# Entry
Amino acid sequence: MYVCSGSLIHYHWILTAAHCLQRSKNPANYTVKVGVQNLPDNSTELLLSSIVIHEKFNSQMSYDIAILKLKHPVAWSPLVQPICLPTTNFKPTIGSMCWVIGWGQEKTKGTNRPFAETESSDTSSSSLVCQMNKTWIQMGVVSWNFGCGRRRFPSIYTSTSHFTQWVKRQIGDMRFASMAVPSFLSPFILTSYILLVSLGSLWLL
# Structure
């Protein structure tokens, strides 16, 4: 059963929301699937070696960010690609086109929205990605919302740029995107970095 979403930010590391990992802190209880396009799917299954939850994460959903370390490095392919993270001072321009990418119960969901619109069709820990200067950059992780696309009830995102330094401290060889960095992903594989993680019979994406 699917629980949450995540994105590959490094060949060893996955970015996700901290609240997805409250059931267990033991990496042996989780399984990751990468390159998933449909559920069920026979895509690559990977194991975790460690879980790093932000030390200030709390029940009020503050600091809702975590990273997962893969036991073995992932092999890049047309369906398995990393997403860029922004630098600390990176600011998207109003009107930039962004996508919320995650999973429903049966199929992939990708919704494009102009930046700063409140309506969305996201799911827990889905990735908010924007294309700027031909570079795909993950600007946020879905933390919580009041339901799908309800007026006056915006979705709440964890800002990835706010946690750039935290991620960098955990992953020594990370590189972060600036406006000059070339694109990692082309539009036709935009959803390919979404991955599934399972906890027992539960899929934690």
The helical segments are 164-170. The first helix runs from residue 164 to 170. The chain has two domains: 7-81+192-203, 97-162+172-185. The longest strand covers residues 44-53.
